[in-house]
Amino acid sequence: MEIHTYEKLWLALALVLIVGFIGTITYGAAGVGIEMIDDEGGTVDPATLDDHPKFGDPGVEKTGENSYDVYVVARQFVFEPGTTQPIRVPEGSTVTFYVTAADVIHGFNVVGTNANTMAIPGQVAKFTVEFDEAGEYGLVCNEYCGSGHHVMEGKLVVMEQSEFDSWYEQQQQEGSN
Amino acid sequence: MATASGPARTFVDRFPSEAGVIKANLLVSFVALGIGAFFGLVQALHRTDILRVIDSADYYTMLTGHGVLLAIVFTIFFLTGFFHWATARSLDRPAVSTLYSWAWFGLMTTGTVLATIAILGGLVPNLGISADVLFTFYAPLQAHPIFYIGLAMFIVGTWLAGADWFLSYRAWRSDNKGERIPLQMFMVLTTMIMWYLATLGVAVSVVFFLIPWSLGLIPSVNPLLTRTLFWYFGHPIVYFWLMPAYMMWYTILPKLSGGRLFSDPLARVVFLLFLLLSTPVGIHHQYLDPGIAEGFKFIAMTNTMFLLLPSLLTAFTAVASMEHGARQRGGEGYLRWLGALPWRDPAFTGMALAGILFAAGGFSGMINAGMNINYLIHNTLWVPGHFHLTVGTAVALTMMAGSYWLVPQLTGTKLYSRPIGLLQVIMWFVGMVFMSNAMHRAGLAGIPRRTAEPQYQNFEFLTPIGSIFELRVQIALGGTLLFLSVVLFLFNILLTSLGEESDRPVDEYLPEPLSGPEGSPRVLDNLGLWTGIAVVLVILAYTLPLAGIIQNGGGLFGGGLPIPATVSAGLDFVTTLVTTTVNTLLEVAA
Fold it and tell me: What pLDDT is stored for residue B561 in this prediction?
């Protein structure tokens, strides 16, 4: 088959570019350790979410010295927690999110960051985020979920450790009463 | 007889029945373009808060209309018309049965009308018919059954259209044993094989799950399963849009430039690569989906990156063919030959400008494809910014520009106005530069797509350069220019079709390529072999993810989402029986 010399050169460069892209992405995944959302979070029955040990009363839970789990339910058109009450975590912590949807497919994005996942009924999205500094972030549903999609938002507050501790203690006491 | 006609006679004189079918296809396509573009204008002004004439809840109805009418109806009816033209032209023979051609056109049109009624019903309160589910119709968002039924009829119509072209090819083959498949016919056939393979996903999703569910026959669906089946179809459809544009860049653009196609064999290789790689990549739209293991996402990413290859090869061929044309026209120098190209011809200029923006869209697509960097822009305005460069310009502008050359062959009348045509394609280019660069930048600032009012209480979006207000103005201005460009296009085509008949309305002769098919291996034309490999690649990419989704996600029909429908006990029993059996089989198989 007759291929022009310049075209051969172009073909070779194109292949180098492609292999280069795959290489950098592989490095990002394996070397830098950027985790993908995958099937690790498992599944959940969306019809009985209210009876679920975690999603029945979603929120923040301390799991170790500096580590926390946050359970979030997305439903038309709120995040629980996130919308009426902000999600609160302490600075310098490692937080694992478990996000699911109660009705239709939603998105869960910490605005301006790569903490971004789809929330699909029946599936649990699990991902880990490190919060270095205190501050406030917006939460936004970035998948169309119905006529009120544009009002579905929330807030995530990264608190100073002492402030968080007293808030968390108060929550625990209220919960046990 | 067709064989007696030389290239000097107009297409409509040689194939009057085919021309009629093609014109009907283009008519539906262009009506959809007009309505869809109008919705686009309303959206561009609404979401930027420049002008809000509709309720924000109706925004999503219009967005569904915009997506379906432009991405499905405009593009695919243009494709069916164009492929019908290319089949008759490249084989130099009429279709096997005109009645059959009208039958598939009728089925596609009926399906389109049903789906459009379902969508527009959303604008009429108390009608009880709506389909505010957007172009992707992710369950459990539910549309009226006629939306899904219309969609199914439309898809089946395209299958029958493909059969029409395969029948023409078979008839040609029996008269031309041992000859190479004419290039345009080859492109039609490979594109349609890809389409048959790709539409299986959406057909299964719609027929087995969404139609029964919307009729209340089954209580629920597995949302991740129907979503995955959508994207099984939803990525290759991108190439279904693109292949008519590529066909024009390969077979018409070189002629418009004043030259000839650079290489016939490599054009065949490119179309075969699209047949092989278009489908086993759909999971790259689901990088952020739970329930799909990282390994499957990695496979989809790798396949996607290799899909860059045929597009990069096309970029080379398109530019090389244009340079050849320019030099034939007396162009010289390293870059000065660019000035020798026929920039006053709207068909040429439109395609060339479409190619330039496609290169930009290709680069933003590489970001989308990069599975970890994608986290930053997934579901932001970056994504519509990207596909308004690809389907919205590479495809749409090429189709409009191509129409300036194609429509006179079908009507037998000269193009009404070349200057207006030129203004139209330049307006599209300028409008899209404003709109898409601002959309990409807004996406980097985190502004979500598919949102009526991206203005929130808890936070503000920040952009490192410029301001959010400036981005909004650019989007609104770009959207307005794009709408006006469509108005000019429709006006020009309408007046062309009303014009006086001419003996030679346009120069339709397409010269042979510089390197013909003779030198290329005959295995390129072995369509059975390539179809087989394409099927194997799809099986490899999809079997395990689909099995996992069905097994872990509560079976074929999901985990009992509450649905406001009464289900008879008998049907319930059958559904349970089927689900249990399939689940048991899957467990045994695993």
Answer: 43
| Chain A touched by B306 (CB under 8 Å) | yes
Residue B214 to residue A41: CA distance in whole angstroms: 30
A151/A68 same-domain check: yes
> Does B464 contact A at CB distance below 8 Å?
no
Predicted pLDDT of residue B589: 53
Pairing of β A78-80 and β A153-159: unpaired
A36/B57 touch (CB, cutoff 8 Å), yes or no:
no
Would you tell me which residues 212-241 of chain B have a C-beta closer than 8 angstroms to some C-beta of chain A?
222-224, 227
Q: Please tell me the distance in Å from A27's CA to the nearest CA on chain B.
A: 10
pLDDT confidence bin for B43, thresholds 50/70/90: very high
* B117 inside 8 A of chain A by CB: no
| Active site amino acids of B | 235, 239, 386-388, 449-450
State whether A23 and A99 are in the same domain: no
The candidate with the shortest Cα–Cα distance to B398, out of B357, B344, B439, is B357
A114 and A172 part of one domain: yes
Q: What is the mean pLDDT of residues B372-399?
A: 95
Instruction: Kindly report, residue by residue over B183-193, the tens digit of the pLDDT.
Output: 999 999 999 99
Give start-end residues of each CATH 1.20.210.10 domain in chain B.
Answer: 343-525
- Give me the pLDDT at residue A4, please: 83
Please indicate, yes or no, whether residues A11 and A90 belong to a single structural domain of this protein: no
Predicted confidence at residue B586, as pLDDT, reads 58
CA-to-CA dists, residue A50 to A21, A85, A96, B421, angstroms: 44, 18, 21, 61
For residues A54 and A83, what is the distance between their CA atoms, to the nearest angstrom? 18
Same domain, A28 and A48: no
Subunit contact A146:B366, Cβ cutoff 8 A: no
B492, B401 in Cβ contact below 8 A?
A: no
- Structural domains of chain A, count: 2
Report the CATH architecture of B343-525: Up-down Bundle (1.20)
Mutate to test the interface with B, among A9, A34, A38, A45 (most CBs of B within 10 A): A38
What the block records as the tokens of B561 is: 């989402």
* A103 shares its domain with A24: no
End-to-end CA distance of chain B: 60
Query: Any idea what the CATH number is for the domain that residue A161 is in?
Result: 2.60.40.420
| Interchain CB distance below 8 Å, A28 and B458 | no
pLDDT greater than 50 at residue B12? yes
Residues of A in contact with B307 (CB under 8 A): none
Can you spell out the DSSP letters for A64-85?
Answer: SSSEEEEEEEEETTEEETTSSS
Q: In the structure, what pLDDT confidence band is assigned to residue B563 with cuts at 50, 70 and 90?
A: very low
The type of residue at B557 is: F
pLDDT, position B464:
83
Contact A14 B309 (CB under 8 A): yes
Task: Give how far B465 is from chain A: nearest CA, Å.
Answer: 15
Q: How confident is the model at residue B44 (pLDDT cuts 50, 70, 90)?
A: very high
The number of angstroms, rounded, from the C-alpha of B236 to the middle of its chain's C-alpha atoms is 9
Considering the domain architecture, whether residues A27 and A112 belong to the same structural domain is answered as no
Q: Which of B17-31, B211-225, B371-385 has the highest mean pLDDT?
A: B17-31
Instruction: Give the one of B63, B292, B519 whose C-beta lies nearest to A38's C-beta.
Output: B292
User: CB neighbours of B392 closer than 8 A, spacing ≥ 6?
Assistant: B70, B432, B436
User: Do residues A125 and A150 share a domain?
Assistant: yes
B396-400, B491-495, B516-520, B521-525 — which is least confidently predicted? B516-520
How many angstroms away from the CA of B301 is the closest CA of chain A? 8
Q: How far is B547 from chain A (nearest CA, A)?
A: 13
What residues make up the domain containing A86? 40-176
Please say if the pLDDT value at position B52 is more than 50.
yes
